[in-house]
Amino acid sequence: MELFRPVGQKEYDLIAQSGFKAFPPRLPEQPIFYPVLNEQYATEIASKWNVADSLFSGNVGYVLRFNIADDYIAQFDVQTAGASYHQEYWIPAEELETFNTHIVGIIEVVRKYA
Predict the structure, then answer these.
(1) In whole angstroms, what is the distance from residue 109 CA to residue 97 CA?
(2) pLDDT per position as a tens digit, 28-64
(3) Three-class DSSP labels, the chain
(4) How far is CA 94 from the centre of its chain?
(5) Model pTM score
(6) Could you report how far apart the first and last alpha carbons of the chain are, in Å?
(7) What CA–CA distance (Å, rounded) separates 60 from 73?
């Protein structure tokens, strides 16, 4: 399954350090990792929220695309957070390391906003 992830500069730098193979651990105040199901939603977050955030995002937003094994992601329910296209998975932070082992290929940059 193809998924997307909007990120700011700090998270992007950590993903780059992994060779674009893994997402970094969540911070204590971030109990959920939420990859999104469509590029439109990821673009909205990256271009509006990440660009407006200087503290964590460095006023930069990236839209990342990656594939995850279908049999793994099937255990999670799709969540809708707002508009009908605001669809995402809620992956518990403690599950992120396992999630990363099910990424197929590399994490790609689709767009950058500043």
Answers:
(1) 21
(2) 889 999 999 999 999 999 999 888 878 778 789 999 9
(3) CEEEEEECHHHHHHHHHCCCCCCCCCCCCCCEECCECCHHHHHHHHHHHHHHCCCCCCCCEEEEEEEECHHHHCCCCEEECCCCCCEEECEEHHHHHHHHHCEEEEEEEEEEEC
(4) 15
(5) 0.94
(6) 28
(7) 28
Both tokens of 109, joined, read 């940059």
d(CA 26, CA 108): 20
Class of the 2-21+32-113 domain? Answer: alpha beta
Note whether 76 and 90 are within 8 A (CB). yes
Side-chain-facing half-sphere of 48: CA atoms under 13 Å: 6
For residue 73 the two structure tokens come to 């992601």
